[in-house]
## 1
Amino acid sequence: MATTLKSPPKLAGSSSGGLSRIIRPLIWLLILLIVAALCITGTWFYLHWQSSRELNPLQQAVGQSSGPANVQYTKPAQVQIPAPIFTKLDPFTVMLESKDSERMLFLGITLRLGDQQSSERIDKYMPEVRSRILMILSSLTPQDVQTPEGKAKLVKEITAAVSKPFAPIPDGQNVSGVLFTDFVVQ
């Protein structure tokens, strides 16, 4: 005869499946709420602590009626930037050295100067300024003026030539830039 083992009969009030199905999700929900509350509290504390550490006394006192009495805001002094001083030269027309053909350069130049004294000197010695620049321009070839490197070299040469002192004056001019306003090679 085969006997089968039967499980003990379940009592009506001791249903472990029904009660644990309700309690387990509630416990997990409670744990989740506690973790979320700790995260929010920690974030608020960290941000509040950081902001109070980085502010200077003037910034901390903003919006408070009882702040430090001796802290006053002073506007930083603005740096005065001098207005640019430009001197426009009459255009130059020169023949460029070329074995193959005759090429012509039409060049308009404006000088940027560092001070008013340099502007007055250049106006006073304009024939010498133009002569110095013409000597540089007349030695150029068409290849010299058609590349960006050649134009940059030309700017340096003109700056150096115009910055040199004039005969009776011991110091030179303050030339901070040479600007091409017209540039035509034909």
## 2
Amino acid sequence: MSKMNEQHITTGGMKMRMKIGIVGAGYVGLVSAAVFADWGHDVVCVDHDAEKIGRIRAGDLPVYEPGLADMVERNRQAGRLRFTTDLSRTAGELDLLIIAVGTPAADDGHPDLTALWNVVHSLKQCVKGDLTVAIKSTVPIGTCQAVSRFLNGHPGSRFDVVAAPEFLRQGTAIADFLSPDRVVIGCRTEAAKRKMQQLFAPLACPLLFTDWQSAEMIKYAANAFLAMKISYINTIANLCEQVGADIQQVALGIGLDRRIGPAYLQPGIGFGGSCLPKDTQAIVALGKDYGVDVSLFREVLRVNREQRGRIVQKLADRLGGVQGKTIAVLGLAFKANTNDVREAPALDIITRIVQAGGEVVAYDPAVNMESLKNDFCFTPAADAYQAVTGADAVVILTEWEEFHGLDLQQIRSLMRHPLVIDGRNLYAPHMMKQHGFHYVPVGVPEQEVAEAAATTV
């Protein structure tokens, strides 16, 4: 076994200005491009979508992420960051090319690598000299090996392929990039190792150097574990509702155990977004390919789907069915501080309400609701107060800070009936009771909600 195939942890080395290309002007690509440019590198971000590139040049980013628009514009003005649709004109001048294109789930659960291989084929045609290629897209185990074999398949090819999985959380991506727990890098040569050390020199965190396959697996294993933790706490929350326990106290009690920790122990409506569902499906598909029992992760996905149905059932139980009822939905994004609705639980919940005969009025402060209203059959509202006017119930599905500051007295006066199903546990039960609401959080029996309110009167 070579030295570079051994697991190895080190810290960053000396900083060097590089010419960096990033293919993919989506969430990961834009954040990476902005931060690397902010570090002083010359960065070009490439995307085949001419309309998207035009919007970005005009200051209209396709993704919402706190602080990202300002960072992009600052580095564009400084000349360190530019955007193009033409990879061939820039690839030959680069020190490093990062692939950050989407790898969505196919029908069988495997990632669809069409976009990635399109980039790889283009590279082979337009680059003749040395080039380090870092794959930041989430890819199946064995992808870096296959890409290296393809790119170096003829004499004179000198492509150094690196696995560089990302661990950014939407809504906190810039902070995550600048203060990561670790950076994982899979590579096979000392030259690639040195280049990645130079690239990440500004970070004060461990650099974990592994082989390709281990780096690729770390990404999937990490996300599948987080998905499992969310389904776990939601299962415990559902038990709490039946046995008379309070999930907030239970989560605190188990989270204080250092072996478990408090992260991802917030009960709610389940996980969504572009990573956890897709990567957990990929683990299931991988287990099937290799004959490994991964039924644990199939259950994680099943629990996640059923958690959405529980929200609709709570509505139906308390309204005597949702047929003909008007339901106000607050929050469409899969989490706060993003406009991403990929695999968003809210859209599934809206669909279920509509299929049961309910009418939905929805509001989200960042999501483009006009682009969704026809497909999901809801009426967009200009703000939360318009959404709740005349509603038979309110369902809170995204933990936006804006919702914490709502005037609850006004909300109550605008509603037809004072039912609030809180899928994010934003409010204190006693406060909601004092404002006259029938308040239904996740993981707290209604008797406990009533008793908590009574003790504060």
## 3
Amino acid sequence: MKNTHWLTSYDPTNEEFWEKTGKKIAWKTLTVTTVALTLSFATWFLYSVVVIKLPQIGFTFTDDQLFWMAAMPGLAGGILRIVNTFLIPIYGTRKIISVTTFLKIIPLVMLGFAVMDPTSSFGYFMFIGFLLGIGGGDFSSYMPSTSLFFPKKESGTALGIQAGVGNFGVSLVQLLSPIVMSVGIFSFLGGGEIVAETGKKIFLENIAFIYILPLFIVGIWAWFSLKSIPVKASFKEQLDIFNDKHTLYCTMTYIMTFGIFAGLSAAFPLLIKNLYVPLESDLDPLKFAFYGPLIGSATRIIFGKVADKTGGAILTHITGIALIILFLALIFGGYLTPTSKDQFNVFLVIILAIFFFTGIGNAATFKQYPVIFAESPRRAAGVIGWTAAIAAFGPFVFNVLISQSRSLSGDTRLFFWFLIVGCVMATAVNWYFYTRKGCERPS
């Protein structure tokens, strides 16, 4: 039987083709893959909620173990993104999106039953966390795929919408989880855990089980509706992106934008728990955690269109400067070493401002990369996948290095100095190669 999911010809740079045929295919693909990506981010960030709740229902994990658990999906996401970077030209959009959507059901089933069993070990939760990284890994298939379907003039808008709406999956987890935990939706499976301090019953397994049916439906939808663009290239051929120094420079700017967004999204609830809950015991980190990813996702959508008009480089530059200032404010304002609960409001405002600017930067970089690598759409797609892969280690880096910073110096300031150095380097590279007058590749 002939394989019909490969498009025989597709050229979004041809205006007539784009208006008559390409636009419809591209926006249909964007719709399906964006819904799927939202569920990917939701599964990837489940542990940002789980690690807060496990100690409350009787699991005796240390703070360091909880940070490592929160870090594991980030480690797996980064590793799996490296793999996903090279899959679209080999297997095509339809197969990759469908299969990865179905795969995410496996760790959700495992997690739902693990939280119901008080004998579940730290090692088992770490294994589940690694599998949840599938939800972070497939991003490096989604974004390169989308970049192939759209012309460069609309790539910033399309990628901004996909990444921005997809990132809402983080807020979805942190907003929806407290609600679904309060209802015995899946009580027929024997769930329900008692919170030791209050005696109240919660249903932590719900935050995993609730996504299983949507993933199954979206997987079927993707299988029967998506097409693939025949941009065939072997794994070896795709390695040519590493022959260009700009692959490294783009990786630096994307670590500064998405790496910080993803890392802070994963670590934000634990930061509140460790810094401010000791000063105000009734402070619930999950009441505030979802605001950051929500703001970052929204600005990513809005500024995708702005980047199409202004170019991405100047917005990335503004992002870098803003992040440096905000990190310095956290350190020198004493908000990482608080002595009063009254400091929390300013701490929250600064963190939300960081999310705001990472959203701008995320939109800007996705406009930049297709322009920087304009000579080859396939290489541009590969660079988008690769940079996203490395930046996906953000949740792992944040949680592990925050823990190490606390161990070495007693607080988290050392880690935030590390972030400042990284932002200075990335901003300087962006200015020299992409922003200043007469730069090598204006974007």
## 4
Amino acid sequence: MSGGGRILAMIVKELWAVLRDPRGRITLIIPPLLQLVLFSAAATLEVKNVTIGVYDRDGGPAATEFINQLAGSPNVQRLIRIESPDALRRAIDDQRAIGVLVFDQRFSSDVAAHRPAQVQAIFDGRRSNAAQITASYIDQIAASVGAVVRPAASRTPPPGRVLVSNWFNPNLDYLWFIMPSLVAIICAISALSVIVQSVARERELGTFDQLMVSPLRLHEILIGKMTPPFLIGMFNGTLYLIVIPVFFGVPMTGSILLFYAALTFFLLAVIGIGMVVSTISQSQQQAFLGMFLVTVPMTLLSGFTSPYENMPRWLQIIAEANPQKHFLIIAEGLFLKAMPLADVFANSWPLMVIAAVTLTAATLQFRSRVE
């Protein structure tokens, strides 16, 4: 049998090992789709359905208009009336409200006289991110009634307004950020879940020695084992490429050809990492745990959970070796802003380097296990 025939036979063998179990077939398709749906609903920094307290010491028309607009906001679930400073403190302490707005007795008269009208905003600092986002909602409503929001510790109104224009995501829809990012996260998990079991499964079932005495050469074994997770990753990437624009309304504005080229290098880099984990592991359980040991830092350092720029400098250097970090930039760029070839290449060549390093390490590790 020729070399190409042996490689094809090895690929078919590995595919059958993955697909012959009905439960295994289901896990390759259903979980990625479920993850896409669940992450789109749960992995969001948007703040909705909040409860806000209102301590209205004015009772005038301007304060009433402000409160009515606040009640009509789609992000506000309900308002609670506060009648005293003690009730205000209890509402924050008991976490019954994310924040409380205080209108002084001159609020409506200041608005009517076109004087600077201020609203004191007191937020629960234990939920700092939610408090900051809620404050921006309230600031927009305040601007519409001619007032400014004054934090509890400040008495100086802002000097002017800022006109904001949001490029590439005009409505600041969080799905437009989260969905392209999930392509990098879930494709990596699906490919890793297959590749980390490949060698560990052979060793646990006792067929590893049989594989070594077969006519297959070392590179043929490696290609045969790495091809199924690559094909599965490509399948999931294609599935997301269809599902995300059609069902979630996130546009794919860039080149599909560039998307597949970047996805190829990304999957090769991830497969190299998974192959190293698989060759080190003595059992499938160890391989499974090793996959989680790899995927958690990869996700945290990718810029998905927190901006890359917010990381310490030494952690940014480590993150440069993370393939998810580079492909996440490409996926977001191609989906949202039609990233040009030069920018795609600037983020793809690190993937090429990482793929070369991880695949070489996997080959050397596998060779040492064989010898």
